[in-house]
Design a protein that fits this description.
The structure holds two protein chains of two kinds.
Chain A lengths: L8 E5 L1 E9 L4 H14 L3 E7 L14 E9 L10 E6 L2 H7 L3 E10 L5 H6 L12 H4 L3 E5 L1 H8 L7 H5 L2 H12 L5 H14 L3 H21 L4 E5 L7 E7 H16 L3 E5 L6 H8 L7 E4 L3 H13 L3 E6 L1 H17 L3 E7 L16 H6 L8 E3 L6 H16 L2 E7 H5 L1 E5 L44 E3 L14 H17 L10 E2 L3 E8 L3 H13 L4 E6 L1 E3 L5 H5 L2 E8 L4 H10 L4 E4 L8 H13 L7 E5 L2 E3 L8
Parallel strand pairs in A: 1-8, 2-5, 5-6, 6-7, 10-11, 10-12, 12-13, 13-15, 14-15, 19-20, 19-22, 22-23, 23-24
Antiparallel strand pairs in A: 2-4, 3-4, 9-16, 14-21, 18-20, 24-25
Chain B lengths: L50 H15 L6 E5 L14 E4 L5 H11 L4 E7 H7 L1 H10 L3 E7 L34 H7 L4 E6 L4 H11 L4 E6 L11 H4 L4 H4 E3 L7 E2 L5 E5 L5 E5 L17 H9 L8 E8 L5 H16 L4 H5 L4 E4 L1
Parallel strand pairs in B: 1-2, 1-3, 3-4, 4-6, 5-6, 7-11
Antiparallel strand pairs in B: 5-11, 8-9, 9-10
Helix pairs in contact in B: 1-6, 3-4, 5-9
Classes of the chains: A alpha/beta, B alpha/beta.
Bound molecules: iron/sulfur cluster.
The site of iron/sulfur cluster has 11 residues of chain B, from loops.
Chain lengths: 644, 361
């Protein structure tokens, strides 16, 4: 590390939000991931929000092709990637255009001025002769710092022996180095990564050298150029001691699946068809054959779920992963698992819908599909994780419920959780509770649909002599499991399937509200919005407002004390990234006048939006609207027709 | 291409791949009777349906092979044929329309030791489930597919199917079907099936074909001509009628010339334009002039699959093609063993730590 020039002051901050933005080929995701790793290693709490286009290489230089990565890192406990950006790195005019509005007033904006050429400005959609770098609207609002990164990077790597193109590819490391300097971060973690990735794995020592050179050049430039009068330092957060790693939601689900298989003594058979944003689960598991994982890339979504059901029938842990459109294709087969009462875990990483929708953006709009989107009365268990790390625990729970209750379980993750990362305290494997699974292997007369006290039928496994039996999608006769078209039997079996799912609630812990235990307003959330809602409610509560918060991990069945909690408050607000799916369920089920804050913009909630909604509910400013939505930092009425 | 004169010598039986060592060793003395494979369920197909004959043959073959009931799994889709598992006293899974190959794949991935049979039909396997069947065969999953081809939708009461002949009048095609039928064996061979065979429901050679399928190591595809005596009766009359049969079908034997006819007096050769033609041995042709069957020759198998009664050819029965190859699930098991050898058996604690970790004190 170079000697620090003492005349530059270092300012302590509690937290900061940095966003890297550039063309999708500019390596912004890597820069962001590295910044996250480094921040985690120095002991900050971190939360991330990657944002990338659906097209692999959208036209270079256009706004559509901009890829971004936002990191909130703090000396305190944080739950969201942050509302406003404190420092933006914009590698080209399109990135500037796409992200500038998210930067807070007086925020730092570092731009690669070499890329602000006529051609690039035009590609970004700016009119000829105009450059935002000279526009007072921007220069007065933000601290814009143009840096000739392309040129400085090339000069630094002039002796690297690489061609111009390869040198150009190191620009992201140059930018990262500069940001490392600005936020007083060490370079070791990234240098170690570069040496391992380019040096050891790709066997490209020259490329490794160049990337490290660019990283250091960016850092030294910050040190020597005196562009910034202060640099910033963010202390480590007071987190629980232990060994940590960074974890994304998709990684956590994959690890949770392996853990559940190991704890239950089962083989994990993970069957999936490539789909954004769930594919990483398949990729991750495919690389873990030494854990005995059987992955199967099926020919389509239907085959994937059917193979998982086949694996369950054969006595192993069958899991399928997908996203919204894929869940729609799996509906019929999920019902086969409902009817045959086999354990099946369906991971649905929700994305913007309907139809192909917004493949790379987050949304919570598959709740009702997962709940009801099948023919017949077809109850399944629904769980939703609340943070990337919680994906691990939720996945284990999903597998446990599926196997112990012989029922399909849908785990509703989302794009935000899937790709977002947070520090994760590595658990002690020995301390995780085993999953007890029983298969019948002796007894007199075997009845495939004879139920235990939880209404669960036995899981008899092919290969076991004396337990040969036939199951299928036609209604089953109570006890024998034979085909039955009997009217009373159908009523009875429908009720039994429902009761079996309701019985799962026995093991669901009671909800405990955060904030006010009773009073004026209860905020009810589910899934990936947890962090933002928690932050908003905590702030409101600290400000003396009468607000409580409960977050549902169990969406079907719901916790037993939910009804009672709902009645402890005068008003109920349900913020969701859809037009009100949980709200509909709560209204129907509990006959309460729940109101919604509903955002359908492919992005997570900002804390500020939730705070506004809470204040409107408390002040009476909400009026009689069933739901409101945040538009450009302002919660407002979606349309006049929404009045209830 | 098989050239009848040139390659005949090499077509001696020794070139035949011997049936792979199978879990059900045919040599083992049968420990079970066919009736042991009958479940307690009443069989509910229409009286006279060809499915009965197939069911009986299947039970016989399994008994003769000494198959273990607990290790045997029947998986089916939807349709008349797909009721099959209910009538077998083995493990059985009557799944959903068209998806049996996918369900069976999952069964094999979870437990490669099981002997898995898929029962499907022309609608189930080639219409709604065509995609699954295609990829199942391509992957060479070690399960056996029995496709009951009755050229009609039976369970839904008589609509034309993907194998119904062009112009066929049914409830859904009152003026005649506009669609060209699919030839199941051509489909299977194009889908890289490693075993492809055909038999007729009431024909005695069905048992032999089933046994050969059982003994094949990868996925086996067997088309069975099946009479739906309610909606498409006598569709295969030409292949079952006592008098006409021998003129209309040709029993394939590896290494033997393609001969048929009541007096074994006819054969098939490639003519000057390299097209198959029927010739009579009474007209001066000799056996050496004929095509010889070679179960290892894909091109020949495909050519045989194109021979149709409608175009004046006898339809071949028996094993068209056989290629011993590793099954998908075995390859996957090998990968796992290999990964364990090179990386060590994974344990949870190291899984959790397989990343950049850091200590917070
Ligand atoms: S409808 Fe046809 S195929 Fe179906 S059971 Fe009756 S005869 Fe057999």
């Amino acid at each position: 590390m170079p000697e620090r020039k003492e005349k530059i002051n270092t300012q302590q901050l509690r937290s900061a939000v940095v966003r890297f933005a550039g063309d999708s080929g500019d390596g912004m995701q890597l820069a962001g991931t590295q910044f996250t790793d480094t921040s985690a290693v120095v002991g900050n709490d971190v939360a991330t929000l990657p944002d990338y286009p659906a097209e692999i290489r959208a036209p270079a230089g256009t706004v559509a092709g901009v890829s971004g990565f936002q990191i909130n890192f703090a000396a305190a406990d944080i739950h969201t990637p942050g509302d406003e950006v404190d420092a933006l790195v914009a590698m080209n005019p399109a990135a500037f255009k796409a992200h500038i509005d998210d930067v807070r007033a007086r925020g730092i904006v570092i731009v690669n001025e070499d890329e602000f050429t006529k051609v690039n400005l035009r590609k970004a959609g700016y009119s000829d002769g105009y450059t935002p770098l000279d526009d007072e609207r921007y220069t007065q609002r933000y601290k814009i710092t143009p840096v000739p990164m392309t040129r400085l990077n090339s000069e630094a790597l002039a002796d690297s022996g690489l061609g111009n193109k390869e040198i150009g590819r190191c620009r992201n490391m140059y930018a990262l180095g500069l940001i490392y300097w600005l936020f007083d971060r060490p370079l070791e973690t990234t240098i170690g990564y570069i040496q391992d990735y380019f040096g050891s794995r790709k066997k490209l020592p020259q490329v490794a050298e160049a990337n490290i050179g660019a990283l250091k050049a960016g850092y030294f430039f910050g040190e020597t150029a005196e562009l910034f009068p202060v640099r910033f330092h963010i202390d480590r957060a007071p987190v629980e001691p232990g060994r940590y790693r960074k974890l994304t939601g998709n990684e956590a689900i994959a690890m949770g699946a392996i853990t559940a298989a190991t704890l239950s003594g089962k083989r994990l058979v993970y069957c999936s068809y490539p789909i954004t944003p769930a594919s990483d689960i398949l990729h991750y598991l495919a690389g873990l054959r030494h854990h005995g994982v059987r992955t199967f890339q099926a020919e389509d979504e239907i085959a994937a779920v059917c193979a998982a059901i086949g694996a369950a029938f054969a006595g192993q842990l069958g899991v399928t992963g997908t996203s919204g459109p894929g869940l729609a294709l799996k509906s019929e087969a999920i019902n086969l698992a409902v009817m045959t009462e086999l354990p099946l875990v369906v991971v649905n990483v929700q994305r913007g819908g309907p139809s192909t929708g917004l493949p790379t953006k987050t949304e919570q709009s598959d709740l009702l599909q997962a709940m009801f989107g099948r023919n017949g009365d077809s109850p399944v268990v629904l769980l939703a994780p609340r943070s990337p790390g919680d994906c691990f625990d939720s996945m284990i729970e999903a597998c446990r419920i599926a196997m112990q209750h012989m029922v399909p379980v849908v785990l509703l993750s989302d794009g935000y959780l899937a790709n977002g990362a947070e520090p994760w305290r590595i658990p002690d494997a020995e301390a995780i509770e085993p999953i007890e699974v029983v298969h019948p292997s002796n007894g007199d007369r075997f009845l495939p649909y004879q139920r235990d006290e939880n209404f669960v039928r036995p899981w008899a496994v092919p290969g076991t002599p004396g337990f040969e039996h036939r199951i299928g999608g036609i209604e089953k006769q109570h006890l024998t499991g034979n085909v039955s078209y009997d009217d009373d039997n159908h009523q009875r079996m429908t009720e039994l399937r429902l009761k079996k799912v309701e019985k799962v609630a026995d093991a669901i812990p009671d909800l405990e509200p955060v904030g006010a235990p009773s009073g004026e307003l209860l905020v009810v959330g589910w899934g990936g919005t947890y962090g933002a809602i928690l932050t908003a409610v905590e702030r409101a509560h600290e400000a003396g407002k009468s607000v409580g918060f409960i977050h549902l991990r169990h969406l079907n069945p719901m916790p037993r004390n939910l009804n009672q909690i709902l009645r402890r408050y005068r008003k109920v607000l349900v913020p969701e990234l859809n037009t009100g799916q949980l709200r509909l369920l709560l209204r129907a089920r509990f006959l309460i006048d729940a109101r919604g804050l509903n955002k359908i913009q492919g992005k997570p909630f900002l804390v500020e939006e939730l705070q506004q909604a809470i204040d409107l509910m408390l002040s009476g400013g909400w009026g009689d609207h069933e739901w409101l939505a945040p538009y450009h930092h302002q919660v407002a009425v979606p349309s006049e027709s929404q009045k209830s | 291409m098989p050239a009848p004169q040139a390659s005949r010598a090499s077509k001696a039986p020794q070139s035949q791949k011997s049936p792979s060592s199978s879990s059900a060793a045919p040599a083992a003395p049968p420990t079970v009777k066919p009736t042991d494979f009958a479940s307690d369920q009443d069989v509910r197909w229409c009286p006279g349906c060809g499915d009965y004959a197939i069911l009986n043959q299947m039970r016989k073959v399994l008994a003769a092979m000494g198959a273990r009931r607990e290790k045997t799994v029947f998986v089916s889709g939807i349709g008349c044929s797909s009721r099959f598992p209910y009538y077998m006293n083995t493990y059985g899974f009557h799944s959903i329309h068209g998806r049996a190959p996918a369900v069976a794949t999952g069964v094999k991935l979870a437990n490669p030791e099981l002997d898995v049979w898929i029962v499907t039909g022309d609608g189930d396997g080639l219409s709604i489930g065509g995609n699954h069947l295609l990829h199942f065969l391509r992957r060479n999953v070690g399960a056996k597919v029995l496709l009951f081809n009755n050229r009609i939708y039976g369970l839904t009461k008589g609509q034309y199917s993907p194998t119904s002949e062009e112009g066929k009048k049914t409830k859904s095609s009152p003026m005649g079907s506009l669609e060209l039928p699919l030839t199941p064996l051509s489909f299977a061979l194009s889908a890289e099936a490693s075993f492809a065979a055909r038999a007729v429901d009431v024909d005695r050679n069905l048992g032999d074909v089933l046994q050969q399928a059982a003994e094949h190591r990868g996925s086996a595809f067997v088309e069975i001509y099946q009479d739906c005596n309610v909606f498409n009766h006598k569709a295969f009359d030409y292949a079952t009628d006592k008098n006409a049969r021998l003129e209309n079908v040709l029993y394939l034997e590896h290494g033997k010339p393609l001969i048929f006819g009541a007096e074994s007096e006819k054969g098939i050769r490639l003519n000057g334009a390299r097209k198959p033609e029927v010739v009579s041995l009474k007209d001066g042709y000799k056996e050496d002039d004929l095509l010889f069957h070679d179960q290892t020759d894909e091109s020949l198998a495909f050519l045989l699959s194109r021979l149709s009664h409608e175009q004046g050819f006898p339809e071949p029965m028996g094993v068209f093609y056989r290629m011993a190859d590793d099954c998908y699930e075995q390859l996957l098991e090998k990968e796992i063993e290999q990964a364990i050898t090179t990386r060590g058996r994974g344990d949870l604690q190291s899984l959790f730590s397989e990343a950049n970790t850091y200590e917070i004190r």
